[in-house]
Design a protein that fits this description.
It contains 6 helices and 5 strands. The protein has 131 residues and is an alpha/beta fold. It is globular, with a radius of gyration of 16 Å. The termini are far apart.
Length: 131
């Protein structure tokens, strides 16, 4: 199977409807995974990036952070670092424990910025910590 076919199959599987509107969201993004992979593979310079993750679900029983986004974000950030780029994760306070656990398990040492729920404007204007 060619790489393009494999990536298209990954997109198809990720878009599988699981009751959350996945298929509808995937339509405008179709082909984006291949384009992103090609931009990294053929770029002369690996981009520096911030990967945002965290979706706290206050109505869950018990209230909790999502479970699939943080580990995926850690894997993306770790891959970019392995390619030579600089990358850090950004999450919010309620999701920080989940993101930090994913980092400890899969990519120790990956920087995590925790955005506060209160005072976000001042936090966002501060200079970034060194990578």
């Amino acid at each position: 199977m060619r790489v393009e076919q494999t990536i298209a199959e990954l997109e198809r599987v990720a878009a599988h409807e699981a009751g959350r509107g996945s298929e509808a969201l995937a339509v405008p993004a179709a082909g984006g995974l291949l384009a992103a992979a090609q931009s990294l593979a053929f770029s002369e310079r690996v981009p520096d990036a911030a990967v945002l993750t965290g979706f706290f679900i206050p109505g869950a029983e018990p209230p909790a952070a999502e479970t699939d986004g943080p580990i995926g974000a850690v894997q993306i950030a770790a891959a970019l670092r392995l390619l030579g780029g600089r990358c850090r994760l950004v999450t919010d306070e309620p999701c920080a424990p989940v993101v930090e656990a994913a980092v400890a398990s899969a990519a120790p040492g990956l920087p995590v910025d925790i955005a506060p729920l209160q005072g976000y404007d001042a936090w966002a204007r501060r200079p970034p910590a060194p990578v």
